[in-house]
């Protein structure tokens, strides 16, 4: 719960830098992963552990797609500042 709240707070406080905005999202995925593991152990079921092994895969895919968006935005606009992202039409 504390990791999730700090992740939400990190997104709300860091609205100027996009790469730093993606780090709290990763910590929220970590919180979900910990919840899967705790509930898997408490219910004596392996399903939560199998889901916990899939979360890093989703996090890696999200990071790769986010990095590609950053690179394309930087090539088109010359900056990745959040203030200029709103002007993208497409």
UniProtKB/TrEMBL annotation:
Biological process terms in GO annotation? ATP synthesis coupled electron transport
Which InterPro entries does the entry mention? NADH_UbQ_OxRdtase_chain4L/K, NUOK/Mnh_C1-like
Q: Report the GO terms under cellular component.
A: NADH dehydrogenase complex
Give the membrane topology, semicolon-separated if more than one: Multi-pass membrane protein
Q: Using the record for this protein, list the coiled-coil segments as residue ranges, or answer none.
A: none
Query: Keywords assigned by UniProt?
Result: Membrane, NAD, Translocase, Transmembrane, Transmembrane helix, Transport
Subcellular location per UniProt equals:
Membrane
Quote the Gene3D superfamilies the UniProt record gives.
1.10.287.3510
List all membrane-crossing ranges. 20-39, 51-74
**Tell me, what is one Gene Ontology molecular-function annotation carried by this entry?**
oxidoreductase activity, acting on NAD(P)H
Q: Which PANTHER family match?
A: NADH DEHYDROGENASE SUBUNIT 4L-RELATED (PTHR11434:SF21), NADH-UBIQUINONE OXIDOREDUCTASE SUBUNIT ND4L (PTHR11434)
Similarity-based family:
Belongs to the complex I subunit 4L family.
Protein name (Swiss-Prot/TrEMBL): NADH-ubiquinone oxidoreductase chain 4L
Protein source organism: Papaver nudicaule
């Amino acid at each position: 719960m504390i990791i999730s709240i700090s992740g939400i707070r990190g997104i709300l406080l860091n609205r100027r830098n996009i790469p730093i905005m993606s780090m709290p999202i990763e910590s929220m995925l970590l919180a979900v992963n910990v919840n899967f593991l705790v509930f898997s152990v408490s219910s004596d079921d392996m399903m939560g552990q199998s889901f916990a092994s899939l979360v890093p895969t989703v996090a890696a895919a999200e990071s790769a797609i986010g990095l590609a968006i950053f690179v394309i935005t930087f090539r088109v606009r010359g900056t990745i500042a959040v203030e200029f992202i709103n002007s993208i039409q497409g």
